Amino acid sequence: MIALFAVAVAVVSGQEVPNAPASPQESPAAPVPAAPVPAAPVPAAPVTPVIEPPEELTGGALVAFTRNEYLEVLAKEGIPASRGCWLYGDYLNDIPFVTDPVSCAQACSLDEKCFHWNFKFMVKRCDLKAYNGGVNQDIGDWITGDAARYDAWTF
Predict the structure, then answer these.
(1) pLDDT one-digit tens code per residue, 28-56
(2) 3-state SS of the chain: helix, strand, coil percent to 5?
(3) Residue 12: φ, ψ to 5°
(4) Are strands 143-146 and 116-120 parallel, antiparallel or unpaired?
(5) At 76, is the secondary structure helix, strand, or coil?
(6) What pLDDT digit, counting tens, does each position of 84-118 carry?
(7) CA distances from 117 to 22, 37, 57, 106, 111 (A)
(8) Per-residue pLDDT for 4 more than 50?
(9) In whole angstroms, what is the distance from residue 104 CA to residue 2 CA?
(10) What is the spatial distance between Cα 32 and Cα 95, in angstroms, rounded to a whole number?
(11) Using an 8 Å Cβ cutoff, are 70 and 100 in contact?
């Protein structure tokens, strides 16, 4: 360290730098950098935008319009989904930063413990579900779907 400082001072002051004596040991090899940790996949936003509902729609008509728009987007993305909610089998509820059903379905696909997903579209809530439970299609303000792995487990 002192020798390095002396060389730096000599260079700055314009003096000639003497040859450094040979090191008795070879310097150790540079450490091998660790492999980069891959980033967690982030579900993509829907390719097809959802049409804003007409201002005059309220109540059940607004819910039906919004549900149908989202179901159409899911169909265009090739994601099977339907009206309703998967009951029981709670796994992860209210997934942060998931604000559309396409991203909700993709989040379920990327998680090996997820077999079903629910999206409450009026408040943009995504829940992931385990294998057990069942679907209730009478619930109109939710959209639900199954991960592809669910079909593989069904007998």
Answers:
(1) 666 666 555 444 455 555 555 678 888 99
(2) 30, 15, 55
(3) -65, -40
(4) antiparallel
(5) helix
(6) 999 999 999 999 999 999 999 999 999 999 999 99
(7) 67, 28, 27, 9, 11
(8) no
(9) 60
(10) 37
(11) yes
Both structure tokens of 98: 């998931």
Of the candidates 148, 7, 9, 127, the residue with the CA atom closest to the CA atom of residue 80: 148
Domains of the chain: 82-153 (3.50.4.10)
Q: How far apart are CA 38 and CA 25, in angstroms?
A: 38
What is the C-alpha to C-alpha distance for residues 99 and 148, in angstroms, rounded to an integer? Answer: 21
14: amino acid identity, one letter: G
What is the three-state SS of 22-72? CCCCCCCCCCCCCCCCCCCCCCCCCCCCCCCCCCCCCHHHHHHHHHHHHHH
Q: At what angle do helices 59-76 and 101-110 cross, to 10 degrees?
A: 50
Please check whether residue 154 is in contact with residue 100, taking contact to mean a CB–CB distance below 8 angstroms. Answer: no
119 close to 142: Cβ distance less than 8 angstroms: yes
Amino acid identity at 70: Y
